[in-house]
Write a structure and sequence with these properties.
Order of helices and strands: EEHHEEEEHEEHHHHHHHHH
Distance between the termini: 76 Å
Largest sheet: 2 strands, antiparallel
Strand content: 5-15%
Strand order of the largest sheet: 1-2
Radius of gyration: 29 Å
Length: 357
Amino acid sequence: MNYENVPCPVCGKPLHEADDVVVCPDCGTPQHRECWFAEGHCANESAHSSGYVWQAGDAAAVTETENPAQTASADDIPPDTVFCHICGSENPSDMKNCGHCGAKLPDYSAVDYSSHGEMRCPYCGMLVDGGDKICKNCGAPLALIPGQRLTESEHSESGRIIGNNTEGELSSFVRKNTDRYIPLFEKFEQGKKLSFNLGAFIFGPMWHFFRKLYKSGIAFILVTACAALFFSTAVNRMNTIMEPYADALNNRTVSAEEMTALSENLLKETKTPLLIGSALLLAANLICAFTADRIYYKKIKRDLDFIKSEIPDANMRRALIIRNGGTSLIGGACAFFTLRIANTVILYIAEFVSNRF
């Protein structure tokens, strides 16, 4: 059968002859093989029990059947029903995680919708203003209550426009500490070039990996490793100078004159590599601190532009934004241990070279 230009019910893109197409053996729905594996089942699996059979001229019905929640009227939705803000699936309100995609569902017991004062975000528990559409801490939508679902406008039009993206999209990507980053991104769009990031200054490459900035994180690891080379040279030179005095120092038989001479010799021989290593490390940390926010914003804009241009479905877009954004404790820990290993390896290399030559 010819499926040319028939829209895939998962991604919405038209099927072509050259595409790898899977036809559901139960209902006959055609879809990309990649989309089939991404969903784990036929896009119209929920309609199989009613005897649904796909027909060539029924493309619109395919899209509607994909998520019945999108076509249900308010009167058809039970009051104890929660729709996942990631995949749009219907769930009982007492469930903690979506039965379809596993995403965390909101805890509405913490929200007082009768008041316009402060309330807590049903997703992360942080205090939010009653008039906010999105949580400033985690970027989750605050419009959802039992019996309501997230519309496409709430997916993409939450908050003011910053550059080519909405405040809601940026908050969904950042998720942590949005009250700092969102106003900062707005200033970048207004012409601000640099800002100082204290976390990036203190933690350097670890901050970059924590924010999933892996390329810049690797670059700063290399710079930090170069600084460690100078420190390793100083330590190795210090050990060489102190070696003849080791026994005397352990037995505390070194005279005052010898200790003074030893100290002066240590300072003279190690001052240059220590100064170079310290200056290089300080420069790397300062560069990291003053460029971190700008690098982060460029990555966010690049990822959001790609997701919005390639993914037509609002629920899938939000899922990818949340997956690509946020933070990674594992990434930060990996950067820390990588840096420690690199410093240790450099120390042994410096000692080996010194002993050989």
